[in-house]
Amino acid sequence: MAQILKGKEVVDALVETMKKDVEALKARGVAPTLGIVRVGERDDDISYEKGAKKRCDSVGVGVKQYLLPADAPQQQLLDVIHEVNNDKGVHGALLFRPLPKHIDDNAIRAALLPEKDIDGITDGSLAGVFANIKLGFPPCTAEACMAILAHFGIDPAGKRVTVVGRSLVIGRPIAMMLMHKNGTVTICHTKTKDLPSVVREGEIVIVAAGAPENATAEYFREGQIVIDVGIHVKEDGSLCGDVKFAEAEPIVKAITPVPGGVGTVTTCVTIQHVIEAAKKTAG
Prior knowledge:
Helix content is 42%, strand content 16%. By secondary structure, it is α/β, with parallel strands linked by helices. It has 2 domains: 90 residues, Leucine Dehydrogenase, chain A, domain 1 (Rossmann fold), CATH 3.40.50.10860; 124 residues, Rossmann fold (3-Layer(aba) Sandwich). Strands 1-11-8-7-5-6 form a 6-stranded parallel beta sheet. It has a 3-stranded parallel beta sheet with strand order 3-2-4, sandwiched between helices. A two-stranded antiparallel ribbon has the order 9-10. Helix 2 links the parallel strand 2 and strand 3. Helix 6 crosses helix 10. The radius of gyration is 19 Å and the shape is globular.
């Protein structure tokens, strides 16, 4: 039976640290504040927003909301982004995407300052990840994976790491972050020939291809550590990941569950980034 790498354990440890950091910042006159920018009323955005606000409340981080209708013109959203950029009392911005089709996503991302970009969506933040410099923040899901590995004492250094997925949201950023920790990284994807055999070579496997339960027993071998980034709603309303958990869990050494794994940690990392941004402001 595999060790289950539960996100709650990671979150509990992070929350305690964040509470202390917030107390220390407030003692210096800095009140960490998250700016939430939402266009429209997408159910998944609203659900994530509620989770973020609840986590902010639990550690003492403030929230300022910028809510626009789905048909808001692009210039109105740009004005909001500029307002966030110029507001010294807002330390980080969480912009919900995808944006409505009439809005140019590239233009909006380019307008947001990297130092306020807590979700790693700007080109500056991604450049910081690839160059391993402190410019903006890494995508929260990628950093959540790293936080899980760190919490459970799993060091990528010298290990073969296989990343399934090549998106700028998780696949490529997490590959760079693992390389910075001296992992030997292979990036593969759904077009990779004989994908299961490539995945089996990894000692650590990050599965983020966006294909529900696609990674079955043939992808895995004994001794592997598996981080499942995917989250999907099945026909019966239950959630699953990219990995077919029931087949992988009896084989591998350790695995994250879905739900209760990476997603649980991601929201926490978002708030952690706000606190880090506030620290930079405080000097």
